[in-house]
Amino acid sequence: MRKKLKCSICKEEHGDRYGHNADPINDGRCCAVCNATVVVPMRLRMFFDSVERTKMIEESVKTGLKCANDIKENNDGI
């Protein structure tokens, strides 16, 4: 049995073997759910330079990522 890692964004344990690069949200490793719902959208927003949507994602990270945690309950360790 492998050790569970802690996501650097939602702070929950996950079963991903290595996690995902959480940049530009932070310098840590994140779970698959946060990668798909926070990191990748932020990278796309930055790429396409959508200031309004980038701020919306940043605010959701600061407020606790409730939607990502709800998804995580049904999908631990993609």
Structural features:
4 strands; single chain; 3 helices
Structure, explained:
The chain is mostly helical and 78 residues long. The protein has one domain. The chain has three helices and four strands. Strands 1-2 form a two-stranded antiparallel sheet. The protein is elongated and about 45 Å long.
* Relative helix content: 40-55%
What is Rg?
12 Å
Unreliable spans:
70-78
Biggest sheet strand order reads 1-2
Average pLDDT over all residues: 77
Major sheet description: 2 strands, antiparallel
- Intertermini distance: 16 Å
What gross morphology would you assign?
elongated
Structural class call reads mainly alpha
Q: What's the total number of strands?
A: 4
Q: How many domains is the backbone divided into?
A: 1
Number of helices: 3
Q: Would you kindly provide a brief summary of this structure?
A:
The chain is mainly alpha-helical and 78 residues long. The protein has one domain.
Please describe the topology of this protein.
Blueprint: E1 5-6, E2 13-14, E3 20-21, E4 29-30, H1 32-48, H2 51-62, H3 66-73
Antiparallel strand pairs: 1-2, 3-4
